[in-house]
Amino acid sequence: MNMEIVFATNNLHKLEEVSKMLLGKFRILGLKELGISEEIPEDHDTLEENASQKAWYIYRKTGRSCFADDTGLEVDSLGGAPGVYSARYSRMGKILFPELSPAEGNIKKLLLEMKGADNRRARFRTVISLILEGVEHRFVGICEGQISEEPAGSEGFGYDPVFIPDSYSLSFAEMDLAEKNRISHRAKAVQALVQFLNRM
Ligand code: ITT
What we know:
alpha/beta; Maf protein; seven-stranded mixed beta sheet; binds inosine 5'-triphosphate
């Protein structure tokens, strides 16, 4: 029987991505399956601390092996912003879009902040914190790319419509999930997690 691990996320897109990556290797339990529906606290200023906070929160609640992912989009011309604040980006500061969904607002603000910028280099960084029998282990995955001038595509989630990974001309939102899962930040972090678990 495959080992069961809880993925401590409220983001169903992440759950789908990672469940597909781990199909046949581990059985991933979502929070819904465990009857947990509350927001998981994540109130730190680094991806590492947030991933750790989310994973420990669910581990303490369930006593089961579990991992959490915190991801940020780091844009060079914005000094690394939105980074750890990627989820809250359009709800911070002066530019607010209450009429848009969080993802649409975030993209709109990002494109406005980057208007006219020649340097469009950016990367997604995922930090995964795994808690196994009360001990924490950390894995990181990075995907380098560029921020496009306009959103394109309807697959994926979050900032996917404006992120074009290196050596591609399509945004993540124009690719099918299998392709994103071959090269993404989350895929790389999950591969490191799998290698670790396979060595055990
Ligand atoms: P959990 O904390 O419940 O896991 P979340 O959606 O809050 O879910 P993060 O804090 O890690 O997850 O997400 C930070 C932001 O980055 C958020 O706006 C996401 O939509 C976005 N994001 C994360 N992974 C992404 C990906 O693979 N592609 C595009 N955007 C992504």
